[in-house]
Amino acid sequence: MSASQRTILVIHPGGLGDILLSVGALAAMRSDFPQHKMILLAGSEVGHLLGQCGVIDQSLSIESSQLSALFSGRAQISDVQHDLLRRCDLVVGWLSDHDGSLQRTLQKFGIPRVILQSPADAGCHHQSERFIQTLKGEFPVDMNPPVRLRLPDQVLQAGRDALRAVEIEHTIPLIVCHPGSGSRHKCVRADTWGTLIWGCRARHLMPLVVLGPADEQAEAVILEQSLPELPILRPRSITMLAAILAQAKGYIGHDSGVTHLAALLGVPTVAMFGPTDEHRWAPRGAQVTVVRGGSCRCMDWDAVRACAEKSCLNVKPDEVFEALDAIDFRYRRVTNS
């Protein structure tokens, strides 16, 4: 990057799924500002992944103290950070700025356009549209842009190597299963997962469970089913997780960031929903099927947590298998082409 190249700064403090739902909006900004360097201030792991995929040019970790002075309303930042903001033509932040302190701090650097908007809004049909809606009026954007994450060759090879290390070969179609979620109240019963994994094997599919650092309860759910010789992987990063997902012929999961990642990679995805609204939160992708139990009758999330019945999560395994059976297993695994 030249010393004079102009920049765009995007601030997104959301979780993995929220940030992945904004990929369409990020692509729209890149399309309208092709000569600018796009910088994302977000979680370090998802920022690294989006940089690997070419969605952004640079990521800054929101977990670190980097640029933290902006959020405290102080303009005393390092020379490097000051130079970044001095060259910035646009800041888009998906966060609340109730007292306007962040807006005022950014304006002190002479940034001509600052757009700060909470991602929470009930007026949009789908959450991805909320992120794009933020940009409307500032420059023309497509409300339904095609989105797809494309992994570079070295990342795809890392996924192949990770499977080979645990002696998983592609002799039969691989189905990645993620039994976790950001909330246990989004997860189907343990016996449902047992039925799904046995059913995959009966269909000559290879189920592989992936778990993240926050999936201790999900791991217990799987282990209590006493499933023999079930491979379980714990990817060390979101980028490695993406590399493993890219080797799959199909994916089964809940309303979670991992499910959004599988869908954006183009992996045929079955997303099991319960108390959350799939019309608002379903993953984006060309090969996504949503299945759910009954309608959720809880009025708010407190009611969801208190609900013992959780009929909305009584997902019928046959509906999941119907979606799996519809996958054309001639589907080629994810490539960067």
Number of strands: 11
Rg calculated over all Cα atoms: 21 Å
What integer is the average pLDDT? Answer: 86
| Largest sheet data | 6 strands, parallel
SS-based class = alpha/beta
Largest beta sheet: what is the strand line-up? Answer: 8-7-6-9-10-11
Give the second-level CATH assignment, the architecture of the largest domain: 3-Layer(aba) Sandwich
Listing every helix as H and every strand as E from the N terminus to the C terminus, the arrangement reads EHHEHEHHEHEHHEHEHEHEHEHEHH
CATH superfamily of the largest domain: Glycogen Phosphorylase B
CATH class of the largest domain: Alpha Beta
Within the CATH hierarchy, at the fold level, what is the topology of the largest domain?
A: Rossmann fold
Taking pLDDT < 50 over at least 5 consecutive residues as the criterion, the unreliable ranges are: none
Global shape:
globular
Helix content: 25-40%
What does this structure look like?
There is one protein chain. The protein is an alpha/beta fold. It has 2 domains: 7-133, 3-Layer(aba) Sandwich (Rossmann fold); 153-325, Glycogen Phosphorylase B (Rossmann fold, 3-Layer(aba) Sandwich). Helices cover 36% and strands 15% of the residues. The chain contains 15 helices and 11 strands. It has helices spanning 16-21, 23-32, 44-52, 68-71, 79-86, 101-107, 127-133, 153-165, 190-202, 216-223, 238-245, 257-264, 278-281, 301-306, 317-325, and strands spanning 7-11, 37-42, 58-61, 88-93, 113-116, 174-178, 206-210, 232-233, 250-254, 269-273, 288-292. The strands form 2 sheets. The chain has a 6-stranded parallel beta sheet, with helices on both faces. Strands 3-2-1-4-5 form a 5-stranded parallel beta sheet, sandwiched between helices. Strand 2, helix 3 (44-52) and strand 3 form a beta-alpha-beta unit. Helix 2 packs parallel to helix 7 and helix 8 crosses helix 11. The protein is globular. The model has no long low-confidence stretch (mean pLDDT 86).
